[in-house]
Specification:
It is built from 8 helices and 37 strands. Strand 36 and strand 37 form a beta hairpin. Helix 3 packs parallel to helix 6.
């Protein structure tokens, strides 16, 4: 396997936005009196806990918030004299909480995270407490005195050791928010119905299989998160909760749903992605408030006609299912702004699609569409239309109504003719028509005054119209793999053109010299014959299928293909081929471009894109692009960017030398923005392992990469397939004393290396990943069992057990 890769490189670029924290304390130059007037104070650090709370703490009379990292939980009486103190954080490394906690009579918010196993009954004397945060301890029960906290409206017990629901919570009649995530809850008691003021419940990442019928009495419940549990069907009891606004049941094993929206009249957002749903047995009542519906990565085969009743729906995400057709009634969703139907089996679209008056994004890639409805030209607010990789033979003749369209992608179809109305798309910035059967262009294409990128690669063009010169904003033009033997003399006026791809055209040396004279300031790429059209389509399809399968199994959402990213990736791949022997592209230098070398381009060198955060992986000498996915899959660092939660877009580049002896593969991924990344981190399981539980056909070995991620100095030594434990970055654990064992089916222990977060010197995994490597290649057709555990915050044990089977 290592022969697949002579050199594999990694670069993970995170352009982080750092927001300064303005302390409410004065600077060191301020007076002592000013310091004593501080409203917020922190004593100790997470690495250096203080031995005890100082007795003179009462001198800070204006303190409102106090954070203490301490090895002792003893509360001095002086702390209670701070009448303005409302928010106290007790963090540290101790297993018992002092009974003196009862002195904090004025505290309204109390946070304790220290590895506590038990709580003193005196905690129930804090009558003014409204929020109790006990995350990241070792608690498995709560004292009965908790029921005395009559003013408590929020309690948080995440990352503890609860197997049974602490029933004393049911006595907190004023409780509004309850979170018990990442515990081991197996069931809920009937008494949970007593929480008649509860508005938000989060039981993510437990072992719940169902809900008690009494759950229906929680009439004020608005937000319910049951993601990453063990539900196999829709909990019927939810149909009675008329005030629910958000439900998250993603990442369960739900195979059927019987959802009655007539009762859930307040429901606005519903997450059901990453289940096993085959049929939508839903009562889509006309009296509903649903605005967001996420159903990606299921097995849904059809959409019921009753979907017309979702009159307020704004986002419908049904990517990666098995849908073959859409009902005419979908045209009734006149509030819809985003419709995502990529990676299905659609063969046609209803004419009613043109009635979606507010639609801004329509995603239909990787289906089996033969044509588009003529009414698509009525979508006056549409900004992005992606119908790439279908079987479309022609575009609708009338596109004049698409006045706000900025991106049109029809790559990889069978289109032979472009309608004249293409010239009426006044807002169009990017047009991707590569991989089709186009032999000529309408003269109206010159009317696209805002066009910035035009991809006409892999077509049958032999000439370009003189009207091309009107494209004043055009910066990037791909004519790769056509029949172009010359360019019009008028091209000399295209001074804004930065890059033109001419690979795979019958250009004589004389014609090429003339083109260089016409475009003296343009990067002209003309290296070798490009990949044939039909083969390219299949390669992209296979590559995207492999990539998204890998992502889904890592708990990440599927990616969308972005052709601007692909053009940039391809430009960089060709730069690497053109300069394959130059020392500057050795090692990690291959991620950069030297302006003084051939085929340097701004697009290929770009590290920041319109979307934000970028990750890039490179590899060499695969026969095809999809094989590069297999290569990256066999590594640690190269796997990370393509499985990251925050990424939404992906682009590919692939290039070979003329003799096919050397190839370069480039993959770039980007996240839309930090708000999107945070959203995805909050809708993905807290912990994912790869290979995942019960996975079959796991590879036997790891492919070496640069930088070397093994503890070995000999980078050519073969080790076992890498195992990764991935913690959601926003909720990562501070694991100490991590250990792991792996046994085969005979019970034999497998020698391992463990790379803990503190050992990760690459700035990529950080606190969010732990790597486990077998010192030797894994055996074929063998079942391996893994037990991994570590201490969290003062001794709490985190533990995970799972198994997988290797390939034959």
């Amino acid at each position: 396997m290592k022969n697949l890769l002579n050199s594999i490189l990694i670069l993970y670029l995170a352009f982080q936005i750092c927001t300064p924290i303005h302390s409410q304390e004065p600077s060191q130059k301020g007076s002592d009196q000013a310091k004593l007037n501080a409203s917020r104070l922190t004593l100790g650090t997470s690495k250096e806990n203080i031995s005890e709370i100082p007795l003179d703490i009462d001198k800070y009379a204006n303190l409102e918030r106090l954070t203490i990292y301490t090895r002792s939980s003893k509360i001095p009486e002086q702390l209670n004299t701070l009448k303005k103190l409302k928010h106290l954080e007790l963090l540290g490394d101790y297993s018992e909480l002092s009974t003196s906690i009862h002195l904090l009579k004025n505290i309204e918010r109390l946070e304790i995270s220290s590895g506590l196993q038990d709580l003193p009954s005196e905690l129930g004397e804090l009558n003014n407490l409204n929020t109790l945060d006990l995350n990241m301890n070792r608690l498995s029960s709560l004292p009965e005195s908790i029921k005395n906290l009559k003013n408590l409206n929020g309690i948080h017990l995440n990352k503890n050791e609860f197997v049974k629901f602490p029933n004393v919570i049911s006595n907190l009649m004023n409780l509004k928010w309850l979170t018990i995530t990442e515990n081991k809850l197996q069931s809920l008691p009937k008494d949970i119905a007593k929480l008649n003021s509860i508005e938000g419940i989060n039981f993510e990442s437990n072992q719940l299989e169902g809900l008690p019928s009494e759950f229906s009495k929680l009439e004020n419940l608005q937000d319910l998160n049951l993601m990453d549990n063990k539900f196999s069907q829709w909990p019927q009891v939810l149909n009675s909760l008329k005030n629910l606004k958000e439900i998250n049941l993603s990442h369960n094993g739900i195979s059927s749903i019987d959802l009655n929206l007539s009762n859930l009249a307040s429901l606005q957002k519903l997450w059901l992605h990453s289940n096993q749903i085959k049929e939508l047995s839903v009562n889509f009542s006309s009296t509903n408030s649903l605005t967001h519906l996420y159903l990606w990565n299921n097995q849904i085969q059809s959409i019921p006609s009753e979907i017309k009743n979702l009159s307020l729906l704004e986002i419908l995400h049904i990517r990666q299912n098995q849908i073959t057709s859409l009902p005419e009634e979908i045209g009734a969703l006149n509030k819809l702004t985003v419709l995502e139907l990529s990676f299905n089996q659609l063969k046609s679209l209803p004419e009613s699609l043109g009635n979606l008056a507010n639609l801004k994004g329509l995603y239909l890639t990787f289906n089996q569409l033969a044509n588009l409805p003529r009414t698509i030209g009525k979508l006056s607010k549409l900004e992005l239309l992606d119908v790439s990789f279908n079987k479309i033979e022609s575009l609708p003749s009338d596109l004049k109504g698409l006045q706000k369209l900025k991106v049109l992608s029809a790559f990889g179809n069978s289109i032979s003719e472009i309608p004249d109305s293409i010239g009426s798309l006044n807002s169009l910035n990017e047009l991707y028509l590569g991989g089709n059967e186009i032999s000529s262009l309408p003269v109206t294409i010159g009317n696209l005054k805002n066009l910035n990128i035009l991809d006409l690669s892999d077509n049958k063009l032999s000439k370009l119209p003189d009207e091309f010169v009107k494209l004043k904003q055009l910066e990037y033009l791909s004519l790769r793999n056509n029949n172009i033997s010359s360019l019009p003399d008028s091209f000399k006026r295209m001074r804004g053109l930065k890059t033109i791809h001419l690979d795979g055209n019958p250009l004589t040396p004389e014609a090429l010299r003339k083109i260089k004279g016409l475009l003296p300031n343009t990067v002209i790429i003309h290296l070798n014959q490009a990949t044939p059209n039909q083969r390219l389509k299949e390669t992209y399809r296979l590559t995207m299928t492999k990539l998204n399968s890998l992502r889904v199994n890592n708990g990440a959402p599927p990616l969308e293909m972005d052709f601007r990213l692909s053009l940039a990736s391809e430009a960089h791949a060709r730069y690497l081929i053109a300069n394959k022997n130059h020392p500057s592209i050795k090692g990690l230098g291959a991620h950069n471009q030297n302006p003084n070398l051939p085929l340097y381009s701004e697009e290929g060198a770009k590290k920041e894109f319109r979307y934000g955060t970028q990750g890039e992986v490179l590899s060499s000498n695969e026969a095809e692009l999809d094989q590069a996915i297999d290569t990256w899959h066999h590594t640690i660092l190269h796997r990370k960017p393509i499985t990251g939660l925050g990424f939404l877009k992906v682009g590919f580049g692939f290039s070979k030398t003329i003799d096919n002896n050397i190839s370069k593969s480039v993959l770039r991924v980007v996240g839309l923005n930090y708000q999107y990344m945070n959203m995805m981190q909050n809708t993905a399981p807290a912990v994912k392992v790869y290979p995942y539980e019960n996975q079959k056909n796991v590879p036997l070995t790891m492919i070496n990469e640069i930088p070397n991620t093994t503890p070995l100095e000999d980078e050519d030594q073969i080790v076992g397939f890498p195992i990764v434990i991935k913690f959601n970055k926003e909720r990562s654990y501070d694991l100490k004393n991590f250990r792991a064992t792996m046994t085969d089916s005979s019970g034999k222990n497998i020698p391992l290396w463990i790379i803990q977060p503190s050992d990760n010197k690459y700035g990529i995994g950080g606190q969010s990943e732990i790597w486990i490597m077998s010192k030797d290649p894994l055996s074929s057709n063998e079942e391996y069992a893994i037990t991994a555990e570590g201490n969290i915050s003062g001794g709490r044990i985190w533990k995970k057990e799972w198994s997988f089977t290797t390939e034959e």
